[in-house]
Amino acid sequence: MPCLNPNILYLFFNSANMHRWNDHLTPVELTEMDKQAHKAAIAWILAKYEELDGNRMDWRRLIENTMYSFIQRSVLTDLKPQVFHRIVEERREQVNAFVLSEFDRMVPDPGDGFRDRFVEYMRSEKDTREDAVIRAAHYLATRWEFNLIYESNRSLYGIEKTRTEIDQQIFQHLDLRGVREMLSSSRETFDFIDLVGQLRFQKRWARTPRVPRTAVLGHSLMVANSMYLHDLDAGADDRRIYNDFYTGLFHDLPEVLTKDVITPIKVSVDGLSEILEEYERDLVDSDIMPLLDPSWRDEFRFMVHDPFTDADHPVFGTRCGTDLKACDLLAAYMEANISRRYGVTSDTLESGEHDLREKLLEKGKGIGARGLMEGLERIRV
Predict the structure, then answer these.
(1) pLDDT of residue 300
(2) What's this model's pTM, rounded to 2 decimal places?
(3) Is a pLDDT exceeding 70 seen at residue 184?
(4) Spatial CB neighbours of 362, under 8 Å, sequence gap ≥ 6
């Protein structure tokens, strides 16, 4: 079976049903899917700072180990972080065996080499620079969430202890320049991460009842992960893997400045799509680029401008925008299809699912969309 298969897609998607901080009062819905997406974006920033300091980053390892930590967390459900980390630390072999057995049950044939590298990841000491970046990104994303809910929970027993524990974990990673930048008085790096985090508030399929109510940021991670798995199947080189994954992860970032405009409006109002694209470009340049180190800006423009076009850049390499678009359509199809099968649907959602299916049959041949959709239908949700 290919690495990009229905079982692993559903494993990732189901994390939208895992609610974080559910023993606290939360002003907004916080899910594991969105947390993992935020973590992946923060890891990109931290790794870029490491490169600025002259440290070589293995981006393929960073992406894949982030994905493996996501799988491990998804399998172990929504344990409190303190419990999760203690169990993993003190019962590593038993936990690894359980995670692997559950992974094998849910994803029985994950593709050539993917499972072997997952086993290697779980057994490793996680002492590489990439693993340090992933850990730091995890705690920085947790800290962002905590700051969001803190005021609503100040009277709760143990809330200050939780704050201290999170900060202590972050302070252990001060050897990473990106962590120091986020904790410094200079706000640009933190502001970029905050901007990315705001996509957790924007729900997909505006005004349409749906379960789970996935957010734009979680959707972006589904696109990025799907594209990474497809690139493994295609034997893509490291540079294309990097471009495809992070283009998928950041492709909807301009929406934090414009909000999402649903497709029926875009296609019904003549010229609206072109106006929005031009306005998004202007806002990216005026509001987002100043938050990034100047040496990253051209690369970031390459990723967020026209993300669904195939490209072969003389500096930044290749990107398969056609297949990225197919992965984007596939993630949207899953959002509609799974909600309908849960029993929460509407005329808008059903017509949207039908249209997405037709588009995938036409434009998704490169990722094997027909087989993926048929496989998803066979999964019991």
Answers:
(1) 96
(2) 0.94
(3) yes
(4) none
